[in-house]
Design brief:
The structure is a single chain. This protein has helices at residues 6-16, 54-62, 66-71, 80-92, 106-114, 126-140, 151-167, 182-192, 210-217, 240-249, 258-272, 278-288, 309-317, and strands at 25-28, 39-43, 73-76, 96-100, 118-121, 143-144, 171-177, 199-205, 252-256, 297-302. By secondary structure, it is an alpha/beta fold. The protein folds into 2 domains: 6-51 and 150-317, Rossmann fold (3-Layer(aba) Sandwich); 54-144, 3-Layer(aba) Sandwich (Rossmann fold), CATH 3.40.50.1100. It has a 6-stranded mixed β-sheet. A 4-stranded parallel β-sheet has the order 5-4-3-6, with helices on both faces. Strand 3 (73-76), helix 4 and strand 4 form a beta-alpha-beta unit. Helix 7 (151-167) crosses helix 8 and helix 11 (258-272) crosses helix 12. The longest helix is centred in the middle third of the chain and has 17 residues, at 151-167. It is globular, with a radius of gyration of 18 Å.
Length: 323
């Protein structure tokens, strides 16, 4: 398998410039156990559609032949990638369809529709919506924009790491959330091919530890069940392409419980005044638990901020039920 290159990621950075924001980094108090480390967060929750996903979606759509864009694109997503594809497609004048789970948060469904995409609901798992998307693509002549397991998507997500290394040049460890693996694959590749001394830690929910299972098995495996408040990283299976990048470039993979994720949402609100969804707070949660063996200056990627207001209220007040 050919892995994404640093040149691929640099080229993607040129494509997404002007659409994806160069999001800020913020210094915050150390949230973990002693010894304390200088701590920064990369605020991808401040992207126009509220998550890093615009990077990979735009990078792939920008490389499609014009006739493919004219026919339209389709993706399958729990929400953030769907919004990224919808926003990118709208910017390029392409029709878009997003297959979402019946359990998708309303804020993410509304976001997809706001960018003019058609929404189809299918099941509750990533496999349910992937199957429906493939059926629709075949029937309607649409091009599939995968949510994570594609080199163009991975390269787009990796552009945020190039920014981090410029914004925090003395970065020693970077924590990255993991769903299907698109963001961790892109970030780890950009980091290790630029600064191999930087430690890369992937974070997933305990209730959806699909990358840990893949590493233990030596290949992606399908979990029989997933459950977590972090809906954006609750995939049942890691991608084949993303898994290959994780094997090559990621130093550690850790899993965090829902209670720690909910607490981290509240911590980020109190200390950074940010609205962060559970998937985006997983990295901070891992640090609060002392996971990942951080070295030097630590950066946590806050990947998204699309959260239902009523759920967010329970996280910041400490009244959320554990998942």
């Amino acid at each position: 398998m050919t892995l994404v290159s640093l040149d691929d990621i640099r080229a993607a950075a040129g494509r997404v410039q002007g659409t994806a924001l160069r999001t800020p980094v913020l210094p915050l108090p150390w949230p973990g156990p002693a010894p304390a480390h200088p701590f920064w967060i990369k605020c991808e929750s401040l992207q126009p559609m509220g998550a890093f996903k615009i990077r990979g979606a735009y990078n792939m759509l920008a490389q499609l032949p014009s006739e493919a864009r004219a026919r339209g694109v389709i993706t399958y997503s729990s929400g953030n990638h769907g919004q990224g594809v919808a926003m990118a497609a709208q910017a390029m004048g392409a029709p878009a369809v997003v297959v979402m789970p019946t359990t998708a948060p309303g804020v993410k469904v509304d976001g997809v529709k706001r960018y003019g995409a058609e929404v189809i609901f299918a099941g509750t798992t990533s496999l349910d919506r992937q199957q429906r998307a493939e059926e629709e693509a075949a029937a309607r002549g649409l091009t599939i924009i995968p949510p994570f397991d594609h080199p163009m998507v991975i390269a787009g997500q990796g552009t945020l790491a190039l920014e981090v290394l410029e914004q925090v040049p003395d970065t020693g460890t970077i924590y990255v959330p993991m769903g299907g693996g698109g963001i961790i694959a892109g970030v780890a590749t950009a980091v290790k091919l630029t600064r191999p001394d930087v430690r890369v830690v992937g974070v997933e929910p305990e209730g959806a530890a699909k990358m840990r299972a893949a590493l233990d098995a030596g290949q992606p495996v399908t979990l029989p069940h997933t459950a977590s408040i972090a809906d954006g990283i609750m995939n049942m299976r890691a991608g084949a392409v993303t898994f290959a990048h994780v094997q090559r470039y990621v130093d550690a993979v850790v899993a965090v419980p829902d209670a720690a994720i909910a607490a981290a949402v509240g911590w980020l609100y109190r200390n950074a005044r940010l609205v962060v969804e559970p998937s985006g707070a997983a990295t901070t949660a891992a640090i609060t638990l002392g996971l990942g063996e951080p070295h030097g200056v630590v950066v946590a990627v806050v990947s998204g901020g699309n959260v239902q207001p009523e759920k967010f209220a329970t996280y910041i007040t400490g009244t959320a039920a554990s998942g």
